[in-house]
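Onboarding guide, step 5: your first structure request.
Type a short instruction followed by the sequence, for example:

Predict the 3D structure of this protein.
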Amino acid sequence: MTARDESVCFLFDVDGTLTAPRQRITKEMDDFLCDLRKKVSVCLVGGSDQDKILEQLGGEEALNHFDYFFSENGLVAYKKGVLLARANIQKHLGEELVQRFINYALAYLSKLELPVKRGTFIEFRSGLINVCPVGRSCSQAERTQFFEFDQKNKIRENMVSAMRKEFADTDLIFAIGGQISVDVFPKGWDKTYCLNYIKEYKTIRFFGDKTMPGGNDHEIFEDPRTIGYTVTSPENTRKQVTEVLNSL
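The system replies with structure tokens like these:
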């Protein structure tokens, strides 16, 4: 490919895809994306809030490094550095359901026995509620410790099952995201939400790591509007993207 193909979008998850979980982007990946954008449109969709994603990508200037930049699953949307839209989960759900869920989540978390617990167990964002059993203020070492504990003991998987049963009368969706938390949002407010803004592309190739059922990349990975690729690390992302480019 020589000239940039404006009909093709490469859409990336953040944690585990462009960066190690909650870590800064490497220069190698940054340069790789810069070169890729000369060939196709490059877009990003993450479940975290904008500030956290920008911190991982090197600062606010990163908004201009992507054709579309979606945080909170696309509920906060930017096009070439300009804000397009921002949704509000509180207005959508109503205060009664918000408080019902938060009260349930806090009660559930209070009964868990984990290697450690820190602070910020519930984070209220524009487009979703993030529930973190270990607490988002945990250190990197504690994050890794919880992730390994969770893999063996299915803390988040069991929590999601319990929440689905408790809130079966609502349209709430529960998805395991990253290493330490669960995202909660209304039906349709998963990462497929961002596809509403990128209808101009003939082909959308999505790369993410949590593509299994229950993962926060699953719905967009399975969506008929995308061609999905499951990656295992930033290095694997570069490998798969290169293979796709070579096949075009």
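Each response can be followed by summary notes, for example: The chain has eight helices and eleven strands.
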